[in-house]
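Hi X.,

You mentioned you wanted examples for the new student's onboarding notes, showing what a folding record looks like when two proteins sit in one file. Here is a clean example. The first protein comes first, with its sequence line followed by its structure tokens.
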Amino acid sequence: MRTGHRNQRLTELADAIRDCVRPGHGQAHTAELVREALRPFLGVPGLLREEQRRGDPERYLQHVLHVEPDASFSVVALVWLPGQQTPIHDHVAWCVTGVYQGAESEQHYELRNSPEDGPHLVPGALVTNHEGEACGFAPPGDIHLVRNCGQDTAISLHVYGADIGELGTSVRRTYDLPVRSGAAAD
């Protein structure tokens, strides 16, 4: 087990996820299974060391907690100070996010292209998850922005179907396109 932090709780979490990540499962089904496996670990004391719970005033911080030896999944803790957010982005593989502490909002987007406006993003659902709540998704259609929407530090656990230790991030691409209000599908 490649990991940045070994403890019994983290080992239990990796074991629970490993049982969900099996060849032959589609990405969306795997994300749903992992979401259910992650929930019991959200907010559980002792999963993170104190230094993995501190934020940085410049940007949200990523701590790689575990990378499965066969690179089938990675567990990452993200620490967000109030107002910190990602750019609009999508992912290289399925992803499950669970809020360990605080609250996060997730703004979904749809990529559209029209002769009048060219490529642009249309906002979709805005979801707020609080401590103990988890969500999951799989590409395509996973364009979103995540932010700490609370007044205190937020910590989330992310499980990616990729080797984040090797890749450094699960982001496939970021989107710097105009955002237009929803209209009929183009």
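Then the second protein repeats the pattern, sequence line and then tokens:
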Amino acid sequence: MPTTTSSPPALEWSVDNCTLGRAMAILGERWTVVVLREVFLGVRRFDDIRRHAGMPRQVLTNRLATLVNQGLLHRVPYRDEGSRTRHEYRLTDKGIELQPILLAISQWGDRHLADPQGPPTAFAHRDCEEPVHVEIRCAAGHRLDDPREVATRPGPGVRPFTEPQARERARR
């Protein structure tokens, strides 16, 4: 006899103000993350980013504009001898806060997508040179090794889900 399962509690919450969705609207395009990777690697000038990442000029222009408009990067003027003033792109504090996210994605890629020789980059603590990794801990300090140990609960900004919201999203 088949067992019946109840609906997931999340169906009671609206996703209209989901911060994960909002973050992915900024970060969810491949080239955006590639630009961030380059800047984290210290590649900050437009032509260097374009050449190193193999990006089309217009795509890079658009991604840099988005990252600047979202406050993740800021433009810093520089001028090489005999040339016009140009800009390089530096991480803001808001942009630097993305490092654990990019490290977590890299760790996942290293485990599942690396070449047989291993991952192309390694991350180390500047002070001691030991490898760096991302881990999940609760506020009480417990390390969570299994993603299934994390439960999603309604937060302070939760809104109730209503069918008209779903119909409106479907029209967009």
